[in-house]
Amino acid sequence: MEFLSGLSFSIPFNYVLLIVGIMSLTIIWGKHKLGLLAVAGTLVLWAVEANSAGVVQMIQNSSTGMLAALSIVLSMSILVVMVFKDQGH
Predict the structure, then answer these.
(1) What is the mean pLDDT of residues 33-45?
(2) Coil, helix or strand for 35?
(3) 8: left (phi over 0), alpha (psi -120 to 50) or beta
(4) CB atoms < 10 A from the CB of 38, how many?
């Protein structure tokens, strides 16, 4: 865990407000799984936006980067299908 102690990052206030707003609305509407998925998507968006130059370079320069990006997109897509399939009940 020592490698985590040297990391520092900040989440912009507009993303914090967006996350709080999404979670509040989904709790009010009773759509907890959809809220968690939306927050996860917002955090992935923030991570890509914060490191956009590094992410693009990683994807362009290595097949591992492309595989990582595709696996993130695929896993988020599977979660979306699972959430909306479960919403029908």
Answers:
(1) 79
(2) helix
(3) beta
(4) 20
User: What is the Cα–Cα distance from 21 to 29, expressed in whole angstroms?
Assistant: 12
Contact of 17 with 39, CB cutoff 8 Å: no
AA letter at 83 = V
Residues whose CB falls within 8 Å of the CB of residue 37, separated by 6 or more in sequence, listed in order: 76, 79, 80, 83
Which pair of structure tokens corresponds to residue 24?
């509040």
Is pTM beyond 0.85? Reply is no
Q: Assess whether pLDDT exceeds 80 at residue 45.
A: no
Q: Which contiguous run of DSSP H or E holds residue 56?
A: helix 52-61
Place of tokens 């709790």: 27
Residue 6, pLDDT score: 63
58 and 66 Cβ atoms separated by less than 8 Å:
no
